[in-house]
Amino acid sequence: MNSALIPNLDLRQENVAVPLKIENGAAHTLAMSARQTHSLVILDNRELDRQCLAQCMAAQKADLQILAFGSIEEWKQKRDEYAPLSAILLNVGGKKVDEPAVSEQIRKLSSEFASTPLIVLADSDDFGQIVRALEYGAKGFIPASVSVSVCMELIALSVAGGIFVPASALFAMRHLLDSSNATARPLAGIFTDRQAEVVEALRRGKANKIIAYELNLRESTVKVHVRNIMKKVKATNRTEVVFKLNDLFQNNLSGGLAN
Questions:
Q1: By Cβ atoms counted within 10 A, which residue in 73, 125, 135, 231 is the most buried?
Q2: Which stretches make up the HTH luxR-type domain (predicted)?
Q3: Helices (H), 136-237
Q4: Do the Cβ atoms of 97 and 136 come closer than 8 Å?
């Protein structure tokens, strides 16, 4: 790289205090233009990482003032010098969201800046970490696997009021829902849908009259279902049918988990 193209920057500075613009591969510091009406603050205690990310983002979004700090306290000391804050990007890197220091930081920032979206940037796209970040108050979770341009679009989405999570999280959620449905109805292949509802009521020890009321059935119809259920599990009385249903339920559940 031709060092003549690089402006004389003080590399000891703790943050990128002025917006950056990339022109022909060279970085130039510029005074804030009239178009830069809002700012984005990147929080990352790794100085090199935050400065590199700030420069890449500034190249993508010339109308947004990109600032990078090691902590929110550093930004507060000079906040009056910058455009109004539109979003905070917290880069946790390889740390886990549920680590005490990280979770506390997310909670504190989301509480203090309630009207400003806090977005978490992380190396991982683990479903559990994403859910926890949102529970702690984040308005979005961006995995480091996306490009800078996509990252900027996702930040804009959060600023507009949306909440972004990676597609991998949706797939994981679908898997959990499918697993939940399979667990909730482990005997679906043995009984009809209506019989399965009666089975669940029997396992809870409910009387026929209560089952009829809850399922909007005649009590005589419930008795027919109970008799058919007894035949399928080869039980001779109500107590035996409940015992066998519980045993059958556990066997099916264990088999499903083993798969």
A1: 125
A2: 184-249
A3: 148-159, 167-184, 193-203, 208-215, 219-233
A4: yes
Maximum alpha-carbon separation in the chain: 93
Tokens of 57: 């983002």
Q: What does the alpha-carbon distance between residue 57 and residue 53 come to, in Å, rounded to a whole number?
A: 6
Residues in the chain: 259
CA distances to 133, 210, 230 from 214, rounded to whole Å, are 39, 6, 21
